[in-house]
């Protein structure tokens, strides 16, 4: 999950609605503009609250922008505890209520730091939603019932919580999917009965791993799927699966709207597994946006937020400025919609590589 580049809010159009509604939305956007410029840390906007969406059949209502906490594990550079706390506080202030982490991020540091932040900010437990993961660790993968059972206790201790709202099997394509079905998910159901977790999820990159598991467990055994890099301007493979997930009663979270850095002006890290063709097309799209006075990161986030069948879009954040920029992009989307002209131009550039992905997990011959 990746941070967007600096987001520009200079141009937007307000469409046909009442004068009072227009003033309300314009006030919200201008407030976010002010926050971006001033980098204010402790102001609580009354107009710029994020939309909440229901997550499948869980009854949970997630903020459309979710807080990806992997950067709190120093995955993308060092983050001080003070900065982390201020970032999480600003996220709450601007309406973000969903926080996602994993023991794998920063080799447990992300969970530890998020736990300190939640404790320091002091928000009542029923006002935020925490998701963490199991099965993937700094030392490798282990989806056994024994490890999963131990893992949740370790996570709860680091997070300073009595329970997590969602516990997800992390990147299941790296495990034995039959073990996930027969051993891991039953172990998670026991944790659910014990009150340590409220809902069960699975995550992964290849779309087929989701249907493999969901077709082999009773409906209701899995509550959530987290898919990444499959609902962005260059890749909308997730969209075809949404009716299937709905038929299974499963809520959907999407992550990496910037395709792990492909859809940024800076470009992806050297290790990015995308093909040279895909990297080149995304670079051209970013350059086109810049030439038109648009920021491809903002456009990409808004595109991902536009599908209301997706409950929340996770974005990695490690600074107040990033929080403000992401919320401002969401508020602008609500007020004025996405710039359809520039979007169409970018989609045309990316059409030759549409839905092109890369291998992940255990490759079967």
TrEMBL record:
Top-rank taxon: Eukaryota
GO cellular component, one term: cytosol
Biological processes, Gene Ontology terms: L-ascorbic acid biosynthetic process
Pfam families: Aldo_ket_red (PF00248)
A GO MF term: L-galactose dehydrogenase activity
InterPro entries linked to this entry: AKR (IPR020471), LGALDH-like (IPR044479), NAD(P)_OxRdtase_dom_sf (IPR036812), NADP_OxRdtase_dom (IPR023210)
Domain NADP-dependent oxidoreductase, chain residue ranges per copy: 65-335
Protein name per UniProt: NADP-dependent oxidoreductase domain-containing protein
Organism: Papaver nudicaule (Iceland poppy)
Upper taxonomic lineage: Eukaryota, Viridiplantae, Streptophyta, Embryophyta, Tracheophyta
């Amino acid at each position: 999950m990746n941070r967007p580049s600096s987001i520009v809010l200079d141009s937007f159009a307000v469409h046909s609605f009442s004068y009072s509604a227009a003033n309300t939305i314009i006030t919200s956007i201008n407030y976010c503009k002010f926050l971006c410029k001033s980098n204010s840390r402790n102001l609580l906007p009354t107009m710029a609250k994020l939309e909440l969406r229901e997550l499948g059949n869980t009854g949970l209502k997630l903020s459309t922008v979710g807080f990806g906490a992997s950067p709190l594990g120093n995955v993308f550079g060092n983050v001080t505890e003070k900065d982390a706390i201020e970032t999480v506080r600003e996220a709450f202030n601007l309406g973000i209520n969903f926080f996602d982490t994993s023991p794998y991020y920063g080799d447990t540091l992300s969970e530890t730091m998020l736990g300190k932040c939640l404790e320091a900010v002091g928000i009542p437990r029923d006002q935020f939603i925490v998701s963490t993961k199991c099965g993937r660790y700094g030392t490798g993968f282990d989806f056994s019932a024994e490890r999963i059972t131990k893992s949740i206790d370790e996570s709860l201790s680091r997070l300073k919580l009595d329970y997590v709202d969602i516990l997800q099997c992390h990147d299941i394509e790296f495990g034995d999917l039959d073990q996930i079905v027969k051993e891991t998910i039953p172990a998670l159901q026991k944790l659910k009965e014990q009150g340590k977790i409220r809902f069960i999820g699975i995550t992964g990159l290849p779309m087929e791993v989701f249907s493999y598991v969901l077709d082999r467990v009773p409906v209701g055994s899995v509550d959530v799927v987290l898919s990444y890099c499959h609902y962005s301007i260059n890749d909308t493979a997730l969209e075809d699966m949404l009716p299937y997930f709905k038929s299974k009663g499963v809520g959907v979270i999407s992550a990496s709207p910037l395709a792990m850095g492909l859809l940024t002006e800076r470009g992806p890290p050297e290790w990015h597994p995308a093909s040279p063709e895909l990297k080149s097309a995304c670079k051209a799209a970013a350059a086109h946006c810049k030439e038109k006075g648009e920021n491809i990161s903002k456009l990409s986030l808004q595109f991902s937020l536009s599908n209301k069948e997706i409950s929340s879009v996770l974005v990695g954040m490690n600074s107040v400025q990033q929080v403000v920029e992401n919320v401002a992009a969401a508020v602008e989307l609500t007020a004025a919609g996405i710039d359809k002209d520039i979007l169409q131009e970018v989609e045309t550039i990316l059409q030759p590589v549409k839905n092109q992905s890369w291998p992940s997990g255990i490759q079967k011959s």
